[in-house]
Write a structure and sequence with these properties.
80 residues, alpha+beta, two-stranded antiparallel ribbon, 24% helix, 21% strand, binds iron/sulfur cluster
């Protein structure tokens, strides 16, 4: 699981923005200004010979600041 979902910076992070682009998801912020230090992204290849998807997750990051549920709360505010 991507650690960004529980990170304080998720709503303004340029790396998370790139992850959203890869997942083709609605963006929390289309102009993020925060540049994290040393994020490590794990890319899983899911599928078979017919359909292949790439799943991108940040698994380590020196800028991570714990904020449980920050991503979920932001998603809920976007849908209001
Ligand atoms: S964990 Fe790192 S890459 Fe992910 S939102 Fe936080 S600062 Fe950005």
């Amino acid at each position: 699981m991507c650690i960004c979902v529980n990170c304080y910076h998720v709503t303004n992070c340029s790396t998370y923005y790139s992850i959203e682009k890869q997942h083709q998801k609605q963006k929390l912020n289309t102009n993020p200004s925060f540049i994290p230090q040393s994020p490590i992204i794990k890319v899983n290849i899911i599928g078979d010979h017919r359909i292949t998807e790439l799943d991108w997750d940040v698994v380590e990051c020196a800028s991570f600041v714990e904020a449980p549920g920050k991503w979920l709360l932001s998603q809920q505010l976007m849908s209001i």
